[in-house]
Every structure is written in structure tokens, then in C-alpha cells.
Design a protein that fits this description.
By secondary structure, this protein is mainly α. It contains five helices and no strands. The protein has a single domain, classed as Orthogonal Bundle (434 Repressor (Amino-terminal Domain)), CATH 1.10.260.40. It has helices at 2-22, 27-34, 38-45, 53-63, 67-71. Helix 2 (27-34) crosses helix 3.
């Protein structure tokens, strides 16, 4: 289960990096707006530091996106996983 958590953290970090680069924002600029060091921001973006919900909302505000986009809620349930039974 821990491995799956790390995977989700890394996926969110990649999306943040992609959106930041599309807006042509530097890591230094993002760090300034988040009131953290560039090094701390780099660790967030590389998935080395977990992103809190508050921090996620701050990042979404800066990048003008929704948390749903970053969290990828639309992921389908893999075959063989538990699914709600039909009644």
C-alpha cells in the first residue's frame, strides 16, 4: 500500500511540474509565492516531500487549476479490484 501512495505522490508532482512549465514559471517564482525556499519547492515537485492539502490548494490557486486535475479522480478501477456489487 505504501508503494501505491508514493506512486500517487509522484504522479501529482509530475502534473504540477508540467503545469508550472506550461505557464513558464520558475521554481524560484513558485517558492516565492508559496513562501518557502526553492529547495523545499523542488522537493515537493520531485515527490520527495508529501504535499499537504493546504499546500495543494495554494499550488492550484497559483497555477489556476483545480485539485481534481492534479489528483486525477477519473482513474478507472483496475480489473480484479473490489467493485460495488449490483443489487
Amino acid at each position: 500500500m505504501l508503494q501505491k501512495t508514493i506512486s500517487h505522490t509522484a504522479r501529482v508532482a509530475v502534473k504540477i511540474r508540467h503545469l508550472r512549465r506550461n505557464r513558464e514559471y520558475s521554481q524560484e517564482y513558485m517558492a516565492l509565492l508559496l513562501n518557502i525556499s526553492q529547495n523545499a519547492y523542488s522537493r515537493l515537485e520531485n515527490g520527495k516531500t508529501p504535499i499537504t492539502i493546504d499546500r495543494l490548494y495554494q499550488i492550484c490557486s497559483i497555477l489556476q487549476t483545480s485539485p481534481v486535475v492534479l489528483l486525477d479522480w477519473e482513474e478507472p478501477v483496475p480489473q480484479g479490484e473490489w467493485q460495488r456489487g449490483r443489487y
